[in-house]
Structure formats: C-alpha cells, structure tokens
Design a protein that fits this description.
This protein has four helices and no strands. By secondary structure, the chain is mainly α. The relative contact order is 0.14.
Length: about 70
C-alpha cells in the first residue's frame, strides 16, 4: 500500500526557508525546523540535510561541492 513517488515527477514536496541575523543563528533555526519537519510514508532527504547543517564546515561557511560528496558517503 501507499503512494510511490514516480522518479519522473518533481520530487520537491516542500521548501523550507529560514532567516536570522547571522549564519550561526540561521543554522540553529534551520536545524530546529528540520527536526520538527515531518513527512510520513516516503523516504526524504531530511536526515542528510540535518547532517549538512550540523557539519562544522557548513556552519563556518567553508563549503564546496566536496562537502556534499563527503556527507553523502558518511
């Protein structure tokens, strides 16, 4: 049972945007929002997004595409 999201459909189910006075506060707010965010019934990228936000390199703004590759492999 349950709906399967076809691979040719847009997988964007929602968009989460936060803002704050500085990067540290915005990251804290984003982590709080990601933790409260819930989608039932399908796998999501929420756990991966939490890892990104919690990563020290992301938190300090030292980001490049290799960070995403490293976090994907973890």
């Amino acid at each position: 049972g349950g709906y399967r999201l076809p691979p040719y459909d847009d997988s964007l189910l929602g968009k989460l945007i936060v803002h704050a006075d500085n990067r540290e506060a915005a990251c804290a707010r984003m982590l709080e929002a990601l933790t409260a965010f819930g989608i039932d019934g399908i796998r999501t990228t929420l756990p991966f997004l939490k890892r990104v936000i919690e990563d020290e390199h992301f938190a300090t703004g030292r980001v490049n595409t290799m960070l995403l590759a490293a976090l994907s492999a973890a």
